[in-house]
Amino acid sequence: MKFDKYFPTERLRPYVKYFVVSENELGGEYKVFSSSGLVIGFQYKGRLAAIEGGTEISLATAGITGISDSYKIFKNYPDIGTILVYLTEIGFPHFASPPADELFNRSLSLDDIFGRNHINAIQERLALAETDRQRISVVEQFLFSQLRDQNPDHLIAEAVKLICQSKGTIRIQELNDRLFISPSPLEKRFRKIVGTTPKKFASIVRFNTVLESLDSARSLTEIGYENQYFDQAHFTKDFKQFTGETPEDFKRSL
């Protein structure tokens, strides 16, 4: 199995965190947990499906997954190869016009966002690429072609920064006060650009902070307190929503 990370060229860095080239010779099901940004995927070989309610749903070979407040289950078939594009929290609007919250808890074909002709063209070029670097170059050129001349929303960028700096523990009232904006307009702008509300986004950031801490020697109680979970039942409930497992069961499986 391969899972190699590549960083974008400087021009794309405000919008793309990194690329991943993933290959697996074996088939199987796996969980994907909430990311703080949208993710684009291109299968250059093999096939992928989503599992929803025990039903297998075939996915397009080029798709996009929005921010989610729970885990998703996917099934890859043997000998699959995928390029994943992890967008920054404010990256999606710089490539496409639909509000990011239209993709909340959804996975769509890229045809629905960019049009079939553009996607067919990139898939043909990916099929001809022989190395990972060539594949990344093809995807970067596609992203350059879709890059929109749009001024960033600096207030939303600052909101994202404050939430991430607090590791998701900042109170929304404090966020509003520090940005000198009332809750309703902040939420409207935040949902359009980031893909969900500030409160839900903060919970995703906090979950990912917890997730990164689980392989440490610290106890679950310590990890909970560090992330301002002062009620163990609340900690367990949130964690189970994001993973489908209790923190104890998840930590044992690491």
How many angstroms does the end-to-end distance come to? Answer: 18 Å
Q: Report the total helices.
A: 10
Largest sheet: 6 strands, antiparallel
Quantity of strands, as a count: 10
Q: How helical, in percent, are the residues?
A: 40-55%
Order of helices and strands: EEEEEEEEEEHHHHHHHHHH
Write down the overall geometry.
globular
Low-confidence stretches: none
**How large, in whole angstroms, is the Cα Rg?**
19 Å
Going across the biggest sheet, name each strand in turn. Answer: 1-2-9-4-7-10
Estimated structural class:
alpha+beta
Mean pLDDT: 95
Strand content: 15-25%
List keywords for this structure.
single chain; 254 residues; alpha+beta; 6-stranded antiparallel sheet; 4-stranded antiparallel sheet; 10 helices; globular
Short description, anyone?
This protein has 254 residues and is an alpha+beta fold. It contains ten helices and ten strands. The longest helix is centred in the last third of the chain and has 16 residues, at 198-213.
